[in-house]
């Protein structure tokens, strides 16, 4: 079971809070990522949800779900790694995603979901540190690219926390559940924004000016952009809020 790093959610209270949030934010379509043994899946079914999609990487879990999920719920089981799954196979309608995310791929899965045009809402479990990075504000210790890229595309809220005993087998870290509600993305070329943000934080101990010089931007152009934003040349990457990076990208 552990070849995919699964930590199965067993705490009924946490399951209930995730399902409550998902149903409250529910869009036209629902997709569960990595259902495992179906703790969340069965809770959703018990609350009356039918005809939704689950994407599961583990062949053993796929077989388990096919044998144990109630047939009348008409759940579509997709035996696939979500990161390789073509989202165009889903209906092009507003979609809610739900998952106890695998820790190792959590950031990449989140980025894929937030990037999909038909993403509407999501309720995801993360390890505590990932959740802190996603929610961090400029100036916080955990603030970085994950904070910027998440907060520019969705309103993020904390649903609940989950200790190690909420899982079997218990992980080495604590976890937290976050809800995401789609926002209108900024009017900027995303790849250029990504280049600016990742370049800025690649050298966290340097000033933003020096970090972006190392990322390939001209010093004079960076200086001019900072001046237009009324920022000192000594400003550091972690001091710039998400919308500040959008403005900076447009100027560069």
* Element pattern in H and E: EHEHEHEEHEHHEEEHHHH
Largest sheet: 7 strands, mixed
Strand order of the largest sheet: 4-3-2-5-6-9-7
CATH topology of the largest domain: Rossmann fold
Query: What ranges have pLDDT less than 50 throughout 5 or more consecutive residues?
Result: none
Task: Supply the helix-strand structural class.
Answer: alpha/beta
Instruction: Work out the strand percent.
Output: 15-25%
Indicate the radius of gyration in whole angstroms: 20 Å
Tell me the number of structural domains.
Answer: 2
User: Which second-level CATH architecture of the largest domain applies?
Assistant: 3-Layer(aba) Sandwich
Distance between the termini: 48 Å
* Residues in helices, as a percent range: 25-40%
Global outline: elongated
Account of the 3D structure:
This protein is of the alpha/beta class and 252 residues long. The protein folds into 2 domains: 2-182, Rossmann fold; 190-251, rRNA adenine dimethylase, C-terminal domain (Helicase, Ruva Protein, domain 3, Orthogonal Bundle). The chain contains 10 helices and 9 strands. The chain has helices spanning 12-24, 39-46, 59-68, 106-115, 128-135, 145-151, 190-201, 208-214, 219-228, 242-251, and strands at 8-9, 29-33, 53-56, 76-79, 95-100, 119-127, 154-162, 167-168, 175-182. Strands 4-3-2-5-6-9-7 form a 7-stranded mixed beta sheet. Strands 1-8 form a two-stranded antiparallel sheet. Strand 3, helix 3 (59-68) and strand 4 form a beta-alpha-beta unit. Helix 1 (12-24) packs across helix 2 and helix 8 (208-214) packs antiparallel against helix 9. The longest helix is centred in the N-terminal third of the chain and has 13 residues, at 12-24. The termini are far apart.
